[in-house]
Amino acid sequence: DDDAGWGDDDGWGDDEFEGDGKPSYPTTTAYDRGGVKVLFDFEKPDAASLTTTVMATFKNSNTQSLSDFTCKVAVPKHLQIVIGPPSSSTLRPSGGTITQTMNVTNLNKGSKPLKMRLMISYKTEGGRSVSETADVANFPDL
Questions:
Q1: pTM of this structure
Q2: Which of 53, 55, 51, 83 is nearest to 70 (CA)?
Q3: Who is most buried in 12, 46, 67, 136, counting CB within 10 A?
Q4: Is the confidence at residue 77, as pLDDT, over 60?
């Protein structure tokens, strides 16, 4: 028994960590325009890790579907990013979501912050192309 009696009812009430011992971070709204919202959730193996997994959720509150949906991400030179494939390229209407995972490594953790530029593009059902950029710097202390 590895937990040596330190169960969930240890009385410490430490809300910095989830039950698995990993640090937890608040969800961040990275973008919210034209009925499209981008939420970031964060996960790290431990607080000292230089790499953060960012789970992006793209939500559509419009009444029409958005097609050819892409989100490109640019980061400054002190960051390295590896972006996984999106779960779809069509953002269904009225609450539809697409998810995409990014691994971001901050080589200057502690001295330079995490920031990124999103380039979001999609087509509306009427065939109109939309292309937007958003700078995101409101990250929790990762």
A1: 0.82
A2: 83
A3: 136
A4: yes
